[in-house]
Structure to design on (865 residues):
């Protein structure tokens, strides 16, 4: 007789992680009660990078779309926020949501062009796209052209009249974006869609042969990433209150750092970019005075990790612990066997 | 007795975690033609790849001209005189016929084989020399693959499934040229599915089954029954 | 006549872009590697030339005698000791390692040479011109640069199709395993290809440094120009790459003529249009 089997997508470690994550989110939501303004500021940056790194990981780590041009969508989001608030007088939070939609809409034709480039050439192509958007942004004279512009006071105060409350609003928005981006990414990867993604990741040809529409799947991921990244971009420049083409479309700030986080934490794992992001900020807060040397060190660390431990800290941890912090794959559980029944 | 040119002793070979050869021993003397037969998956190709240096082995498991060569990479072994005609020919598709031959001779030892001599052996290749290697028929491609290996003037030539996918008449045509190749004292290992052809062309034969040598003997005197039982197990 | 002048300048600049592109195309052809640090290596060559010319008092063009072998050596070592270990089925390691390298190079140059822009002084040749008519005159230096670009492309073409090294490059690109059976060590071939790529980069870097100001942050844009020239020209075709560089140079010149802010944009737009209507480029390699 064959043992009764069930297929499950939860594990004990996964449930524990989930409970801990919920507690952490609740604690973070209450943070404004105790934290200083400077801390909240830093936390918003961390939230933004958590979301950016998770989205980059979704592209490069899970979908084979290695982009070095995601700064395009950060910039588009930032400029959309400024444009929609300044010219259409929209509420900044509404503008932030619309910025995501604009990012998704722009992602469609961009994908149409870039998907013609294979593999590594896609990476450089995405960089070209970002450069095009940067140059276009510097042609918008109503937003200050090449030197950029500041968010007018009337728009800043429309969020909340006091500075403290503005900070709270931005803080909670940032927290919400990070939680939603990470949550939706996990949900997506554990759905049937995620299964298709993993099939493509292991063997694109085989996935195609078994009926997965590879281009469509990749297009959906790229558009979703464009949506999320543009929203994060809007958040970043809502906090900065000032935008310029060079800042908005910076490859260093919005792609290089993000790649370092993903590489150090572990590409192709949900918890990877999160771990990498936290390490990045610890390093930044302690070593930022070193300037260029700090960046060189980051580059070196990324190279060493790529060569020595390409699965990053998360991969190393899961190997040492023997389980995944955020399990994505389904497991077969044999009903007859007892105790540790995960296969 | 003279030392053999190639001596394989107690060789074990692995493809990742999968063990393809167990305790294989064989020898090839100077100027000798040895056939290795066996069913699909018996380990024949693995054995040739290991001898040629594409798969690592214990250093003393393979000795060539008296020195241990197990684990020496293929590109070094070519210079020492071991050339492999790989299964499926594996011609360089962006090189012309002549370029395929030329690259075979890029690290040539001293010896009788040259472009001219290969064209004498397979005159059709001279006519086709400027064509893309992929435009040739299967038999002609096999000639290029053999010629490419000969260009390095090997002491030991390893031929993996020369007859694979070729019409019998073409196979016969190629095998008829073998004496011209071994005439200068070159040693030869031929791996074949076509047992009759293999026995006809060789002096001694080894039969592999599931990674082990199950039979060894003189090609002319060995009995059909012995081969059948070595081939399929009993 | 003004237009003729700008377009001519664009054509000549295209030679420089073709040099960026040739090195990129070469290593992609041999080992499917896209070197994100390509442009930063161009800038490194420019700074090396700066050091050599100022310390030894050499003329920039003479300094090529030192810079070219030096860069080739760096390329060989880089490939042999670092990049060979990233090659495999996975796309990420080579991309991310060269990306890390790009960041290290940019910031390293910044640390040593400051972010200020520099220029190499080549003396009289910089201002020498060839007057074709009363309206049209060509700089000797841009002409020389274009001639060198054509010579490099022609040389690479000869090397690829007429020499043993070219055969080894193409055969290794076809089948990394089987080349070992003809005595070729793919790791050495890859390293030689990178050495050659960086030798070309060295020439490009010195011309870049003589023709215009350079600073540590300008590498990525050179990578992009080279990449665009490769795609416009068609993958795997060296003469196509030269044409791609020229098309890009002319597009930029025309853009700049319309509005200075449009110089780079016009180049990118031509690239995007080519990608949209002719993604295989103008002169894709003819398959046998």
């Amino acid at each position: 007789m064959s043992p009764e089997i069930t297929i499950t997508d939860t594990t004990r470690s996964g449930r524990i992680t989930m409970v801990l994550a919920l507690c952490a989110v609740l604690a973070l939501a209450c943070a404004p009660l105790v934290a200083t303004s400077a801390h909240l500021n830093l936390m918003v940056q961390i939230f933004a990078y958590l979301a950016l790194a998770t989205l980059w990981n979704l592209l490069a780590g899970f979908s084979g779309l290695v982009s070095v041009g995601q700064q395009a969508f950060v910039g588009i989001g930032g400029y959309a926020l400024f444009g929609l608030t300044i010219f259409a007088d929209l509420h900044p939070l509404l503008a932030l949501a619309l910025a995501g939609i604009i990012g998704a809409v722009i992602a469609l034709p961009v994908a149409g062009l870039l998907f013609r480039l294979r593999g590594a050439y896609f990476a450089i192509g995405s960089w070209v796209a970002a450069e095009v958007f940067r140059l276009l942004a510097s042609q918008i004279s109503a937003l200050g052209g090449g030197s950029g512009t500041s968010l007018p006071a009337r728009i800043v105060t429309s969020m909340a009249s006091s500075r403290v409350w503005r900070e709270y609003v931005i803080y909670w928005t940032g927290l919400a974006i990070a939680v939603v981006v990470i949550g939706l990414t996990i949900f997506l990867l554990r759905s049937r869609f995620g299964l298709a993604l993993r099939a493509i990741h292991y063997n694109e040809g085989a996935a195609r042969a078994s009926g997965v529409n590879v281009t469509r799947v990749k297009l959906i991921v790229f558009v979703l990433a464009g949506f999320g990244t543009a929203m994060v971009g809007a958040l970043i420049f809502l906090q900065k209150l000032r935008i310029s083409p060079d800042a908005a479309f910076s490859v260093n700030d919005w792609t290089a750092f993000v790649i370092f986080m993903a590489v150090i934490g572990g590409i192709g794992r949900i918890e990877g970019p999160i771990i990498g992001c936290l390490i990045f900020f610890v390093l930044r807060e302690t070593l930022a005075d070193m300037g260029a040397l700090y960046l060189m060190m980051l580059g070196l660390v990324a190279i060493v990790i790529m060569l020595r431990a390409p699965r990053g800290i998360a991969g190393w941890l899961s190997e040492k612990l023997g389980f995944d912090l955020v399990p994505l794959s389904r497991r077969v559980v044999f009903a007859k066997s007892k105790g540790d029944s995960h296969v | 007795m003279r030392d053999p040119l190639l001596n394989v002793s107690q060789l074990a070979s692995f493809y990742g975690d999968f063990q393809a050869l167990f305790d294989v021993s064989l020898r090839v003397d100077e100027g000798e033609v040895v056939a290795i037969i066996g069913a699909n998956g018996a380990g024949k190709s693995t054995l040739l790849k290991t001898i040629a240096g594409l798969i690592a082995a214990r250093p003393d498991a393979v000795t060539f001209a008296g020195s241990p060569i197990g684990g020496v990479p293929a590109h070094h072994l070519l210079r020492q005189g071991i050339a492999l005609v790989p299964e499926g020919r594996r011609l360089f598709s962006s090189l012309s016929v002549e370029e395929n031959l030329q690259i075979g001779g890029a690290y040539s030892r001293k010896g009788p084989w040259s472009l001219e001599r290969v064209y004498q052996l397979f005159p059709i290749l001279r006519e086709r020399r400027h064509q893309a290697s992929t435009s040739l028929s299967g038999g002609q491609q096999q000639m290029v693959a053999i010629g490419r290996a000969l260009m390095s003037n090997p002491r030991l030539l390893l031929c993996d499934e020369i007859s694979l996918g070729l019409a019998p008449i073409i196979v016969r045509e190629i095998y008829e040229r073998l004496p011209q190749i071994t005439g200068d004292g070159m040693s030869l290992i031929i791996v074949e599915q076509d047992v009759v052809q293999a026995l006809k062309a060789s002096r001694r034969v080894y039969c592999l089954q599931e990674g082990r040598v199950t039979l060894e003997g003189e090609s002319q005197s060995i009995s059909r029954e012995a081969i059948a039982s070595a081939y399929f197990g009993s | 006549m003004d237009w003729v002048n700008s377009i001519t300048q664009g054509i000549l600049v295209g030679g420089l872009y073709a040099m960026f592109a040739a090195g990129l195309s070469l290593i992609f052809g041999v080992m499917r590697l896209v070197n994100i640090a390509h442009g930063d290596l161009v800038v490194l060559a420019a700074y090396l030339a700066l050091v050599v010319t100022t310390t030894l008092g050499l003329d920039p063009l003479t300094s090529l005698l030192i810079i070219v072998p030096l860069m080739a050596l760096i390329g060989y070592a880089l490939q042999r000791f670092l990049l060979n270990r990233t090659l495999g089925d996975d796309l990420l390691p080579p991309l991310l390692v060269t990306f890390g390298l790009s960041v290290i190079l940019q910031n390293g140059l910044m640390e040593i040479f400051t972010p200020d822009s520099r220029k190499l002084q080549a003396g009289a040749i910089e201002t020498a011109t060839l007057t074709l008519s009363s309206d049209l005159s060509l700089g000797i230096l841009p002409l020389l640069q274009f001639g060198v670009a054509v010579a490099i492309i022609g040389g690479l073409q000869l090397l690829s199709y007429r020499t043993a090294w070219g055969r080894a490059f193409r055969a290794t690109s076809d089948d990394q395993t089987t080349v070992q059976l003809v005595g070729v060590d793919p790791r050495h071939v890859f390293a030689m290809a990178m050495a050659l790529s960086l030798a070309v980069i060295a020439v490009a870097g010195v011309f870049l440094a003589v023709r215009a100001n350079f600073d540590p942050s300008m590498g990525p844009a050179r990578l992009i120009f080279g990449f665009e020239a490769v795609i416009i020209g068609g993958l795997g075709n060296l003469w196509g790459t030269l044409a791609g560089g020229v098309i890009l140079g002319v597009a930029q010149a025309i853009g700049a003529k319309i509005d200075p802010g449009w110089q780079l944009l016009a180049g990118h737009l031509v690239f995007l249009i080519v990608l949209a209507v002719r993604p295989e480029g103008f002169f894709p390699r003819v398959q046998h």
User: Anything to note?
Assistant: The beta strands of chain B are 6-15, 18-28, 33-38, 62-64, 67-68, 82-85, 156-160, 187-192, 204-209, 212-218.
